[in-house]
Amino acid sequence: MTALELATVETELLSTPAGGIQRHIGEFWTAKQRQMHSLHYSNSYRASFKPELPNFFIQNFTNKGDVVADPFGGRGTTLLQAALTGRIGISNDANPLSERLAYPKVNPVTVQEIERRLCELDLSADIDFDAEEDMSMFYHADTFKELINLRNYLKNNRDDVDRFIEMTAISRLHGHSNGFFSAYSFPQISIPKSNQEKINQSRGVEPDYREIKSRILRKAKVSLKSGKIAELRKTGKQHLITTGDSRDLKDWKSESVDMVVTSPPFLSQVDYVQDNWIENWFCGITKDDLKDKIVQTPDLNIWKEFISDTLTELHRVLKKGGLVAMEVGEVKYQNMILNLDEILLSLTCSRQYNMKHFRTREIYVQSQNFTKLANCFNVANNKKGTNTNRIVLMEKI
Ligand SMILES: C[S@@+](CC[C@H](N)C(=O)[O-])C[C@H]1O[C@@H](n2cnc3c(N)ncnc32)[C@H](O)[C@@H]1O
Could you say which of 48, 101, 175, 278 is the most buried, measured as most Cβ atoms within 10 Å of its Cβ? Predict the structure, then answer.
């Protein structure tokens, strides 16, 4: 029995120039938080999807040994889920930060290795504060000194233990509890310095000293608690992780991918450069490195062209009959709510965007609520799901 048969699903019919397309609305995976492998939760990442989403599509539409890819990899959710289910993963993102987060998840190390390495590290060397970015609103001077020493060490030391330590350190850069390196801040978003100064003022505090090694070790233990370290490690080097534009996946071989499970930027909903600025700073990734690379546009026509060009590139890398599960959401656009799944559907029916080479099979909406929204297609049963997970399943033809 498939997950679709198991879930309570309502199906509506969208009429398109290419015929009726079924849109299934239901709870295909649990709404509960943190139910999957602990490595998935080692880093917060803006607009990441729940691992249950790639798991649903991987389990229902691919077999063991298949190649599962994500051109907008983010924190590596699809990659890790592919690895955990015996598939070969490929992950790409325009931001090199993604590779720093994704690689250690599929090449994890043991707590003992991390503990040993941390013991060996001396993070107490003096640093030239004037040569560094002013981060005094986030970090106590002694915490900052340790952070810079760690960053300098990681420039030249990059085995799998170092890389796991780096990923874990990135996850501790800012947040609200004592487990983070910063003064009280937001865990999901790197907020601007001026906002952090306001938080410090309103709480009447200055950043206190947060020793970093013990915090890295504590978080690493939590990330690794689901185990499967040896299994993941055995296949870790089979996966491919690239940094580049989704419209030009240079290092991905033609006709090599069985299924793509992905989620592109939704117009300009999220600012991936600004919201990750502290992570980028720690990794030495500059705004210039990302300029014109991260696509976040408020213009629907530019977005459509971007997605269409990405799909053209995905057509090249997919095997014949290969699938794309593309997750989009609903966005506010010119005073209305736009269901981006319908925009994607219109793309696959459009001559203008030259989308003859994909056929939409069906759409899935992961939803607990049923609310009416603006639609651009006729809906047979007049019930329209809302929620952020709208997945269009397309097939290469
Ligand atoms: C919705 S997020 C994907 C999150 C991912 N599914 C996860 O679970 O972490 C979109 C990603 O697209 C990336 N991105 C933006 N423009 C891109 C481009 N032109 N090519 C490749 N990646 C891009 C952003 O850096 C961001 O990580």
Answer: 101
